[in-house]
């Protein structure tokens, strides 16, 4: 029963997390301008990191990394404040590494322009499958000069309406599944609760209700907790209502069977029970001298 309940609970929590995640994604995606803005900022951060690492490779740790210019939704440029040397092989790895970290599209064209005449000094084409990309002249170092790097993404950077519909369908399905799991979980809990209530032992002692399974005495909706030994003693007395139970029997069942030998502990716990039952004058625990105790309910 507990194992099944835990499974339902885990499934429910997992569904809620997925719904929250997809709902968040859909909120970001439902507005194309928001999507483009988010994408643009991620691209700019990644390209600025590339710029920083290129300057560091040129042992320039003081010049500022210039802002990345957005040419259009898929094209970005970064210039440098001073002349730099570019190793194509390192440039390819720098861009690829930083784009992967940012989870940017894996298909793009990189062009390195000379500031003097705006001619392309180096360029390459990267695809999702690296072996299908075109990366020429990787070992030819570009001499120290003024350069601008332009990156153009060849994939659509925004979500299509088909993707919107897919997200909404998934969200609706997950909401339905979550509701079903929640109802099943609640039903399971209710059944479990009803089963416990149905099998719970409830004894009446005068104006008190005695629940030995929970070590509780109830009177006028007020609950009193009993210790384990108090509960065991009271249960034996209730089972032998209006009959004398010998001291030897009480001590044996409550203490000695548990490997403990007592002297005056029995009298102490009987005294505690009397105090808890004192609100009902029809209940008495009498001492049968030299024999034992008797629970009397008039």
From TrEMBL:
Protein known as: Probable hybrid two-component system sensor histidine kinase and response regulator
Species whose genome carries this gene: Tenacibaculum jejuense
Transmembrane residue ranges: 167-185
Keywords in alphabetical order: DNA-binding, Kinase, Membrane, Transferase, Transmembrane, Transmembrane helix
DNA-binding region: 200-297
InterPro entries named in the record: OmpR/PhoB-type_DNA-bd, Sig_transdc_resp-reg_C-effctor, WH-like_DNA-bd_sf
One Pfam family cited in the UniProt record for this chain: Trans_reg_C
UniProt keyword DNA-binding, yes or no: yes
An example molecular function term from Gene Ontology annotations: DNA binding
Segments forming a coiled coil: none
The keyword ATP-binding is annotated on this UniProt entry: no
Top-rank taxon, per record: Bacteria
Ranges of residues in domain OmpR/PhoB-type: 200-297
Example of a GO biological process term: phosphorelay signal transduction system
């Amino acid at each position: 029963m507990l194992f099944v309940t835990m499974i339902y609970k885990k499934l429910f929590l997992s569904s809620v997390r997925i719904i929250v995640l997809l709902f968040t994604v859909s909120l970001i995606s439902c507005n194309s301008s928001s999507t483009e803005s988010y994408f643009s900022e991620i691209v700019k951060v990644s390209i600025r990191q590339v710029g920083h690492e290129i300057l560091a490779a040129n042992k320039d740790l003081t010049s500022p990394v210039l802002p990345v210019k957005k040419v259009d939704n898929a094209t970005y440029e970064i210039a440098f404040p001073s002349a730099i040397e570019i190793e194509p092989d390192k440039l390819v790895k720098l861009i690829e590494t930083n784009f992967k970290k940012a989870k940017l599209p894996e298909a793009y064209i990189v062009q390195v322009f000379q500031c003097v005449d705006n001619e392309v000094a180096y360029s390459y084409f990267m695809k999702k499958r690296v072996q299908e990309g075109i990366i020429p002249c990787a070992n030819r170092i570009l001499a120290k000069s003024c350069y601008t790097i332009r990156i153009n993404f060849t994939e659509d950077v925004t979500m299509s309406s088909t993707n919107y519909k897919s997200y909404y369908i998934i969200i609706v399905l997950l909401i339905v599944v979550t509701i079903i799991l929640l109802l099943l979980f609640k039903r399971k809990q209710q059944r479990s609760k009803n089963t416990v209530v149905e099998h719970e032992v409830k004894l009446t002692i005068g104006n008190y209700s005695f629940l030995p399974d929970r070590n509780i005495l109830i009177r006028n909706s007020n609950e009193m907790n009993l210790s384990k030994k108090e509960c065991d003693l009271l249960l034996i007395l209730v089972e032998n209502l209006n009959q004398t139970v010998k001291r030897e029997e009480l001590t044996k069942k409550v203490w000695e069977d548990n490997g403990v030998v007592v002297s005056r502990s029995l009298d102490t716990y009987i005294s505690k029970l009397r105090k808890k039952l004192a609100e009902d004058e029809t209940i008495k625990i009498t001492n049968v001298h030299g024999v034992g105790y008797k629970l009397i309910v008039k």
